[in-house]
Amino acid sequence: MIHPAWLPAEAFRAIGSRRVLVQGSGPLADTVRDEIAQACARFGGVVVQDRKTAELILSIAGPGGEGFRLGRRGDATVISADGPSGLLNGFFEVARRGERAFDAALADERHVPALARRMLDHWDNIDVHPVMGQVERGYSGGSLFWHDGRPCDLGRVRDYARLLAASGVNAVAINNVNVHTTETRLLTDRLTEVAALASTFRVYGIRVHLSVNFAAPVILGDLSTADPADEAVRAWWKSTTARVHEAVPDLGGYLVKADSEGQPGPFTYGRSHADGANMLAEALEPYGGVVHWRAFVYNHRQDWRDRSTDRARAAHDHFAGLDGAFRDNVILQVKHGPMDFQTREPISPVLLGMPSTRLAVELQVTGEYTGQQRHVCYLPPMWSEVLRAVAGHVSGLAAVSNAGDDPFWTGHPLAQANLYAVGRLAWNPARDPIAILDEWIDLTFPGAASELRDILHDLMDESWQTYEQYTAPLGAGFMVRPGHHYGPDVDGYEYTPWGTYHFADRDGVGVDRTVATGTGFTAQYPPAWADRYESLATCPDELLLFFHHVPYGHVLHSGVTVIQHIYDTHFAGAHRVSAMRDRWQEAAGLVDPALHARVTERLDEQQRSADEWRDQINTYFYRKSGVPDAHGRPIH
Ligand code: BDP
């Protein structure tokens, strides 16, 4: 059995019990008509042809666009859409509001998305990869798109497309950025699979993108080089891209991870990333496609005796000098922080420092470093901070999806809220992330008792902050087990070539990234930001160890020492998890028993893991520093 996610059939009662008129033609208008016909069949409403008697009117009033107006005209609620996508978006807005959309006092509102491209990236492989499994960093079962090397049931994909459309997403990349040989073939002899997925997503206004391997001309055996300056290579991409568009005329474009963690790229040929990206952009240009080129480029084979190469600097060092060098249809896709999806990082300076380049911010919904869906960790409060900081600098958002073939869609049923919220925030980054949480609760459990709504809210609203409390402190990051990245291992990466260090010794901890005495990373920021991070007097506590190496006795702005903060937050975090676990028991009988059981099992594991984090982190820092806990709690 597949469990419903947000907007189960019951959530369409308000629409489905009314007299509804849909005006407009084309595939998206047909989708809206189908949706309404189904809702009416269930709840006794009718599809009408006449404006006079309609209680809900949805019409395409403009030539194109994703926006719409919502308001009352006489006794009807009216959606006037800018174009077909706007009609679909307006329909889901009415669905989300339920009865409130039919309030006689409803004010006129205009809705337009803040970010033009709101994309989910799937790290799905067709085959099961020997180390990474089928979905790289996937914690929700297998792929929604492939099973046993073959395409999956498209009915489930259609349901997924519908969920995404209802949250505001309008693009997906269907395969892993680490493109293995089988997946490289999606560009050529497996194109029919791409076309089938694109048709399924298309009816919900979502465009499909493909991750491509930069060395595809070589891997597929056609050429001996992938050099972007080579005419034969350029011609190969043009003809291959032309064939792709015969099969999928509205392909969104390509997504590329190049020269990173073993993936091929232009550096092999002494070319720049602008050379590489522009070659693909030129091939896509005639079809209106874009290249999402990732800025996640760093040396993962660092010599750990030479700590002068700071991984945090890498993206800016590689890309800032290329500002203005990319074609118009290149979008530089930048991870939100300078490192790698940690629980707490500053904003990537690349997002603030490339005014002449189209930018998209990349988030990770899947939660590789935030509990891997074994822990409750509602991430939108973090994303909201990021999106507010980069407002005006980015035009797109790409988020690594957390959905898979799990019966609950996400491995942790409550992690659905993250998937829902990423779309809503991409549409409107100014929204309160906690209001979005409540919206998700209402839409996923329509008609739920207020008691259940309160329990869900209490479990999730500060869960990111709780997770932060019991894991790596004060922005230090990592401290996870190498490879799979789950659970604590304080020195797991400390003496490896990956560039992720905390530099704890008997005297202190943290990475000195200042200009004055450290790696100079702070200078990559605009002056006001650089000054704030450079100075101990103004650096925010939560990022202290990201920017500074300090003694354990350093006093935080909060008034406690670093070492005491570590002890206090780790005891508090693990304690909060036990309160969450108790709280969830009050939901027994209020939700589907299978869902209750799954969340219970996950909370048991979260408790075990939080206790383990608390004990290892506290013990580690007690033994390094020799400073006892001021409150005498057990640390050995
Ligand atoms: C890291 C993951 C790795 C991804 C990489 C990426 O551990 O599996 O391939 O990010 O974003 O966080 O490319």
Automatic annotation (TrEMBL):
Domain Glycosyl hydrolase family 67 C-terminal: 410-633
Matches recorded under Gene3D superfamilies: Alpha-glucuronidase, C-terminal domain, Glycosidases
Entry superkingdom: Bacteria
InterPro entries assigned to the protein according to its UniProt record, in alphabetical order: A-glucoronidase_C_sf, GH, Glyco_hydro_67_C, Glyco_hydro_67_cat
Glycosyl hydrolase family 67 catalytic domain sequence ranges: 109-389
Residue ranges crossing the lipid bilayer per the database entry: none
Pfam families cross-referenced by the UniProt entry: Glyco_hydro_67C, Glyco_hydro_67M
Protein name: Alpha-glucuronidase
